[in-house]
Write a structure and sequence with these properties.
single chain; mainly alpha
Length: 379
């Protein structure tokens, strides 16, 4: 919840501050950029707020900040050093998204200027369509997905310490199922409603902005899978492998970047990122199986069921969106909000009922799923 709060508040601060500065205030873009960067600090405060609230609610603040018992056998310096040693590989592998964005930033405009007739100002706009605009929404989706699927990662390490490979294998399956249970329908719904979603944040998109936004949303599945598989691999003490696979992914991205930009234009960086992440995802998945021997058939069956439920959800949402356009156009912000509320609500309702019927929701909701089935008279 703290991770979700961090991303949502960060994006809200970024957009509101920029809007007030550029449209109502001085219009100084440097000040707007400063506030956009400062939004990360505000998001961090929101994250701490959620954490401290739950600590206070559970009565743990007093024990946390109260006088601590003295333990002469504990070496604080050794603990700090060990913490840094464990944290650095997580930071390295976790920087993939930012590093891939830097590669795009360094190469996209320079390459397009050499091989196309676009002006620099047109390329700045294209780069915003490609990177800046989608990231506000995609980072929220990734944060929610990771916070849901990453809950069991500490338990994974515990199972490996106890040499409980069966328990570790079960946790890997559960983590992947939780990730896919959220991210697949979220992406499908977002792609269908991409136009009103974009309009709410940035105004009605042209065809190119719409295409790049939808492509960036689809790319989220690769970002989310990588962001969950890399920590899981490190949780089973395969840190060196995780870093090696991260390096391979960066190398693949760097090699494919220029050719794909030359041949596919603005779609090139999106596809190179997907492939650059897809390679380490495949390697990490294979290594996790080699170490824990989790059932790949079970993962495939659960993933297939989630995809089927998503298709069954996507069809009525797509039909609704197509028909509702004749009643209310999604070219205005208010019209787009209504599209999102009604279309998104329909998708959540359909997918929720299907997940309850198939018992997929039990993994996410626990005992509450049974109570929901009873209220809705679902057997």
């Amino acid at each position: 919840l703290s991770q979700i709060a961090e991303q949502i508040i960060r994006v809200i601060w970024m957009l509101l501050a920029t809007f007030f500065i550029m449209r109502i205030g001085t219009g100084d873009y440097v000040t707007a950029v400063v506030q956009s960067t400062f939004a990360a600090f505000i998001g961090m405060l929101a994250s701490y707020g959620v954490l401290f609230f739950y600590l206070w609610k559970e009565g743990k603040l007093k024990s946390l900040f109260g006088k601590q018992a003295v333990h002469p056998d504990i070496n604080p310096t050794a603990i700090v050093i060990e913490t840094f040693k464990e944290a650095i590989p997580f930071i390295i592998t976790g920087s993939a998204v930012q590093l891939f964005q830097l590669i795009d930033q360094w190469t996209f405009i320079r390459t397009m200027e050499k091989f196309t007739s676009y002006s620099n100002s047109q390329l700045q706009v294209l780069y915003a369509y490609l990177s800046s605009n989608p990231s506000k929404i995609t980072m929220i989706l990734i944060a929610v997905a990771i916070s849901i699927a990453g809950v069991g990662i500490p338990l994974l390490t515990e199972n490996m310490v106890k040499k409980d490979l069966r328990g570790a294998a079960k946790l890997i399956i559960n983590n992947l199922q939780l990730l896919l249970l959220f991210i697949v329908p979220a992406i499908a719904g977002s792609v269908i409603l991409a136009k009103p979603l974009y309009t709410v944040f940035y105004g009605a998109p042209d065809s190119q902005a719409h295409l790049l936004f939808a492509a960036s949303l689809i790319q989220v599945i690769f970002l989310a899978l990588y962001s969950v598989l890399a920590p899981m691999l490190q949780a089973i003490f395969e840190t060196r492998k995780a870093i090696n696979y991260f390096a391979i992914g960066v190398l693949v991205k760097a090699i494919l970047q220029l050719p794909l930009i030359i041949f596919l234009g603005a779609l090139g960086p999106v596809i190179s990122t997907a492939i650059g992440l897809g390679v380490p995802i495949a390697l990490m998945y294979k290594r996790l199986h080699t170490v824990t021997h989790f059932s790949r058939k079970t993962v495939f069956r659960k993933a297939l069921l989630i995809c089927i439920l998503t298709v069954l959800m996507a069809i009525p949402v797509a039909v609704f969106y197509w028909l509702f356009q004749f009643i209310l156009s999604p070219t205005s912000r208010m019209g787009s909000i209504i599209h999102l509320v009604l279309g998104g609500g329909l998708g959540i309702l359909v997918y929720g009922v299907l997940a309850l019927v198939t018992r997929m929701a039990d993994q996410l909701l626990g005992a509450r799923a049974a109570r929901l089935r009873a209220k809705l008279h679902i057997k």
